[in-house]
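4.2 Preliminary Data

To establish feasibility before requesting continued support, the project team ran the inverse folding procedure on a target of 505 residues. The structure was first converted into the token representation described in Section 3, and no sequence information of any kind was made available to the design step. The complete token record follows.
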């Protein structure tokens, strides 16, 4: 039996081939059999371009229905889907491509010239472009459709075979490619189906990007394995969400989506009456946001918790108390434990390091066996999050052991920005911190030590050139020295206290 995720999705497609599965706001819609056929056609194009089982296809494109088809086509042929944030700069892309060595890189037309320069560095690389029904890959797809070229067979995959690589940064070093298997994705989709009572009668309001775990594996996979319709928005936009709500039953988002919806007067009980479930994750949902949402709509947002490396691990219950400030018990099939400084499990109510175990835990980091080994204790994966378990089994994420900023649901590792800043003339050292931000949850502040003549505008320009826009610090502070403890370690907690109000109005 094949464990290819596409086979699971295809079974759902075959149950209701005529059901409209992807609908766009402009009225275009695609049935299950359209997606099955189009992914078979695109699979033939990718195969002709030399992609075979186990080979990577990297993708940096705007969200569109063809993006969904491309994802399905890569799964079908047993390829490894490698999505990349559209905000990544050319230099960031260069690292990912040289590390992952994809056979095909699919990008927007405006990014093709740079990608082409990498062909000499990545052996066997082909660059293709894809927009919303445009680009060289779309032309090849149309040509293949015209001559009836398609690959119908779904390549057999084992539970442990890699379906996707997603890059995630670390406290030290360069971003690491998390190898996510077919087994991981199928088990996560199954546990979420059970926990959230998801079925083909649900319509998913899909506003998230398709290049992270949340939008791709939590949202899209859940709908696809259940053969449930998706209203695919091009991006998060409150007006589009308001338009989509009366036609949907489930929405998923990062906390910023919900705080932004609450600023819309039209977002009320009536607007949300057709919805059965709002889900939040990727960053902490403030209790005040959860309460304000409940007051406005009469519905309690269901908060869940996960990571790129694990998919989803915990979720508040569908039926029962959805506790604001907690992420709920572990999902079915997931085990969690909270470890104190002495290496032993702590009793309920005490804070410790969260570790998780289950079929959803990834296979390891691409080409980095030592880093992989360092983050596992046997089958237990060390999440890097600090957590607490209640007497009745709810997990609360109370902080991070890792030096991470989460802004608008996107992870930013300070080290990456500090490395860029420390390389600049006149900068002696830097400390990048996250402090409360009313829209993004956390905003980035750069604290610098260096020559009096440092031009902050120039530093910001360098960051913009090298780093994705969401990683560029928005506040700049210059100090004579950074606060350090007796071990010489920079005390970021003191900096966070001092600049806590940087983004308050
Ligand atoms: C955009 N900008 C940001 C962010 N996004 N700044 C800080 N944080 C952000 N998240 C900046 C851009 O650089 C630009 O500034 C300006 O905002 C406008 O850009 P635009 O793209 O128009 O912004 P937006 O449309 O308002 O986007 C904000 C957003 C978006 C809707 C919150 O970032 C978003 O959809 N976030 C969700 C990310 C996500 O899917 N996370 C899940 C990861 P400038 O022009 O100055 O550069 S998966 C995960 O974490 C795990 C597994 C989990 O548990 O789910
Ligand atoms: P990433 O690896 O980009 O997928 O981000 C995963 C990290 O996001 C986790 O390790 C947590 O620190 C954070 N995270 C995800 N969901 C939540 C949540 N509901 N509450 C608090 N933090 C969360």
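Position-by-position output of the design step:
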């Amino acid at each position: 039996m094949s464990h290819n995720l596409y086979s699971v999705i295809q079974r759902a497609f075959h149950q209701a081939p005529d059901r409209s599965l992807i609908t766009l706001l402009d009225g275009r819609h695609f049935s299950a059999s359209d997606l099955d056929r189009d992914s078979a056609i695109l699979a033939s194009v990718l195969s002709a371009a030399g992609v075979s089982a186990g080979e990577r296809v990297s993708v940096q494109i705007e969200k569109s229905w063809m993006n969904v088809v491309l994802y399905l086509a890569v799964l079908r042929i047993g390829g490894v889907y490698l999505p990349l944030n559209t905000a990544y700069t050319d230099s960031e892309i260069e690292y990912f491509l040289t590390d992952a060595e994809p056979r095909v890189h699919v990008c927007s037309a405006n990014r093709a010239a740079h990608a082409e320069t990498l062909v000499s560095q990545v052996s066997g690389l082909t660059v293709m472009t894809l927009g919303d029904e445009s680009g060289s890959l779309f032309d090849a797809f149309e040509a293949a459709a015209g001559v009836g070229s398609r690959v119908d067979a779904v390549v057999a995959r084992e539970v442990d075979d890699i379906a996707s690589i997603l890059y995630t940064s670390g406290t030290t070093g360069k971003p690491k490619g998390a190898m996510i298997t077919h087994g991981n994705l199928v088990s996560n989709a199954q546990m979420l189906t059970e926990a959230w009572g998801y079925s083909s009668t649900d319509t998913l309001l899909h506003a998230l990007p398709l290049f992270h775990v949340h939008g791709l594996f939590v949202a899209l996979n859940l709908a696809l394995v259940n053969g449930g319709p998706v209203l695919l928005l091009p991006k998060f936009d409150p007006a589009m969400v308001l338009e989509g709500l009366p036609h949907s039953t489930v929405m998923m988002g990062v906390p910023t989506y919900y705080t932004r919806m609450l600023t819309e007067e039209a977002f009320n009980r009536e607007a949300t009456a057709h919805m059965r479930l709002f889900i939040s994750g990727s960053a902490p949902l403030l209790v005040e946001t959860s309460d304000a949402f409940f007051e406005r709509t009469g519905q309690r947002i269901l908060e869940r918790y996960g990571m790129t490396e694990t998919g989803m691990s915990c979720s508040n219950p569908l039926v029962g108390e959805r506790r604001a400030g907690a992420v709920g018990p572990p999902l079915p099939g997931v085990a969690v434990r909270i470890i104190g400084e002495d290496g032993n499990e702590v009793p309920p109510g005490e804070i410790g390091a969260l570790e998780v175990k289950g079929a959803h835990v990834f296979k390891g980091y691409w080409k980095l066996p030592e880093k992989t080994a360092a983050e596992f204790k046997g089958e237990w994966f060390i999440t890097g999050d600090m957590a607490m378990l209640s007497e009745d089994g709810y997990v609360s994420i109370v902080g991070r052991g890792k030096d991470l900023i989460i802004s608008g649901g996107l992870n930013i590792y300070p080290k990456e920005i500090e490395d860029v800043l420390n390389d600049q003339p006149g900068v002696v050292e830097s400390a990048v911190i996250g402090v409360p931000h009313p829209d993004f949850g956390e905003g980035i502040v750069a604290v610098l030590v260096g020559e009096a003549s440092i031009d902050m505008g120039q530093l910001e320009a360098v960051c913009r050139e090298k780093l994705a826009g969401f990683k560029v610090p928005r506040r700049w502070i210059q100090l004579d020295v950074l606060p350090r403890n007796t071990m010489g370690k920079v005390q970021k907690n003191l900096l966070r206290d001092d600049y806590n109000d940087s983004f308050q109005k």
